[in-house]
Every structure is written in C-alpha cells, then in structure tokens.
Amino acid sequence: MKARFLDRPHRRLNLLTGEWVLVSPHRTQRPWQGKMESLPPEDRPSYDPQCYLCPGNDRAGGAKNPAYDHTFVFTNDFAALTPFEPRLLDDEGGPPQSEGGLLQAEPSGGTCRVICFSPRHDLTLPEMELPDIRRVVDLWVGQYEELSSRYRWVQIFENKGALMGCSNPHPHGQIWAGSFLPNEPAKEDAEQARYFAEHGRPLLMDYLKEELKEGRRVVEENEDWVALTPWWAVWPFELLLLPRRALGSLPELEDSERNGLAEILKKILTRYDNLFEISFPYSMGWHGRPKRDFGHWQLHAHFYPPLLRSAAIRKFLVGYEMLAEAQRDITAEQAASRLRDCSIVHYKQAANERGASR
Ligand code: H2U
Ligand code: ZN
C-alpha cells in the first residue's frame, strides 16, 4: 500500500461489516478546548462494604452474594432480556402489527448475567495473576456452552471504566443471551458467509494471514493468538483478538489455547493501561459462531476503547459519525505502533518495584 496515500484522508473497508470508515490521519493535531474527562481515583480497597459485587454483600432486590473465592455469576437483577412468555402472545394474538405493516415488532426472550472476575474489589483483569485470568476464560467457556444450547446469540462482554458507562469498578463482565441474532453479528455473519461461499476459506483466516505478512498492525502475538489493530479500526486503539487456527467458538479452545488466551489478555490489557498510565476504559466482547455448522465463522474478540490523545481526551462518535459514517483520527498503524511501544509490565507493578528497591 502506498504510504503517502495513507497519510491523507481516505476510506477503508471493514471486511466484517461491509461498512466503510473515513480515516483522517492528521486530525489529532487540532487544538482541543472541549471536554476533558475527570479521572476516577486509582486507589480502591480490596473489599468495599458498599459494593454490590464484593463477596458477602447485599445486592439490589434483596439477593446476597456468597463469600466467593475466585469467580461468581448471577442473573442480572435488572435484566434487559427476560425469559420468553408465550402466554403473552397467545393472550394478545401475536406481536402488534400496524395497519400498513410499517411498524414491526417481534418477540425477544433471553437472560442476562453478571460475571465477577475476582473477589478483589481493587483489581482489574491485567492486574490479576495468570491462573486467575485463566479462571475467567474458563468461566466464559462454560457460560457460553450452557447458554448457546438455549439461545441464538450469546453476547459475552465487559464494560470497563465509568467512561464506558460501567456502574462499578469491581472487575466484572456481563452476558446477554437472546433468542435472536442482533445487528452487529448479523452483519458479520453475512460478510463471512459471502466470503466463504466465494473462496471456500474463512474470511478472518485469510485476513490474519495478510496482517501477519505485513506486520504493521500486529500488537501482540503468541503461539495460539494474535492481537492487532484492524485495518478498518474505528476506535482510536481498537484491537481485534484472533486465534491462529480456524475455530468457531470458545468451547472449541484446547487447554493450551485457553492458557495462551489468558497470557495474551494480560499483555494487551497491560499495554492499554500503560498507554496513559490509567486503568484503560473499553468495551470488549466475544463474537463466536452462532450455529455449529457455520464453517465461515471465525471466533474473535473486539476491544473498543474510547480514549484518543490522553487519559482525559476521548473520541466522541457524533456529528459526521452519527449522520454519515464512522471516522478516525490516527491511523491503525500509528495506534499499533503506540501500543507496541508500551511495556508489558503494568505501571502500578513497576512503581511498586521501584518503591521496593529504594
Ligand atoms: P455494568 O457492567 O454496566 O457496570 O453493569 C453492572 C450490572 O449489574 C448492571 O447491568 C447489574 C446492573 O443491572 N446489577 C445487578 O444485577 N444487581 C445489583 O444489585 C446492582 C447492579
Ligand atoms: Zn467490590
């Protein structure tokens, strides 16, 4: 690809969604007098009596958490998806239909769960020990296994940081499982199926091969996994995490691949935290094959962090992005290089070690 072309405004195609993104490489040099995010305090106690996720504490609605030692899962007390009630449809004679048929609705059943990664209120994934991150991986696998036998789409995700709307700093994620295929995976399914029909190979496997050949967007890799800033990234430091081998969903991961996943997670999330020396906010989630016979679908995880130039300046998806199309300010290559420059030793651990050696 010609370098000078990529220095000027251009568009890139998102292979997974079929949508274009506008890239404006030099826009980050503009002056900034807009919103500066205030930073949450970094020092948290290992147990917070007010936290609704800490072991032994009360939750809203009267439930009480057990004194858990590692991970803990419960059904969300304010679930966005609730079990399907066929009786409701029978009583009302099916979903409402407007006279001209333009106002459509369909039933949606499901369940929502909250998954606590650790009993420790003060930790985040990158600060946890590898065996404890592996426990989170196993929890994701087990939950996916159970819920995917009952639901069409199981969305495992983590909202991290107040900036992403996370209500509590206690390390946790969520699962929303529902009877329908939501918009984002539906787009990814269509694009992956189309490519597979044309080429007979999974789209993301061919894409990964190309990325590994070029190398510029690869941030971290090990024997089983590769983390890269995708060619079409929209969020400033977006990452796509891919297994090296063609596989569709989390339960297909071998034992060694689960260990490798824990290891690469610790590294990329440490790089994230080290970038601005803060607990880096993001939304991340797994996209696994929605049906067992979908050979075109490659398992992957997305990481969408909102921060752009510092711990205090975030990217807003507004204006042009809402009304026309997604746009980004630094290139995916610049972002990858910034992340590669970050240490894989967490800044808090480095500070502790400096303190201890004094
Ligand atoms: P966040 O990941 O966005 O912080 O969400 C935490 C979830 O925890 C949120 O979906 C649930 C909220 O509904 N919750 C409970 O299930 N019980 C509680 O007592 C408080 C919060
Ligand atoms: Zn807590």
Helix-strand blueprint:
Elements: H1 3-7, E1 10-13, E2 20-23, E3 72-75, H2 86-92, E4 110-116, H3 130-148, E5 153-160, E6 172-178, H4 183-199, H5 203-214, E7 218-221, E8 225-228, E9 239-243, H6 255-276, E10 282-287, E11 300-304, E12 307-310, E13 313-314, H7 320-323, E14 326-328, H8 332-341, H9 347-357
Parallel strand pairs: 2-14
Antiparallel strand pairs: 1-2, 3-4, 4-6, 5-6, 5-10, 7-8, 8-9, 9-11, 10-11, 12-13
Helix pairs in contact: 3-6, 6-8
The structure holds 5,6-dihydrouridine-5'-monophosphate and zinc ion.
Residues 52, 59-60, 76-78, 114, 159, 165-168, 174 line the site of 5,6-dihydrouridine-5'-monophosphate.
Number of helices: 9
Strand order of the largest sheet: 3-4-6-5-10-11-9-8-7
Number of strands: 14
- Terminal-residue CA separation: 49 Å
Instruction: List the domain count as a whole number.
Output: 2
User: What is the CATH C level class of the largest domain, in words?
Assistant: Alpha Beta
Low-confidence stretches: none
Structural class by secondary-structure content: alpha+beta
Mean pLDDT: 92
In the CATH hierarchy, what is the architecture of the largest domain at level 2? 2-Layer Sandwich
Helix content: 25-40%
Strand content: 15-25%
Classified in CATH, the superfamily of the largest domain is HIT-like
Principal-axes shape call = globular
Entry summary:
The chain folds into 2 domains: 72-90 and 104-178, 2-Layer Sandwich (HIT family, subunit A); 182-357, HIT-like (HIT family, subunit A). Helix content is 30%, strand content 19%. The chain is built from 9 helices and 14 strands.
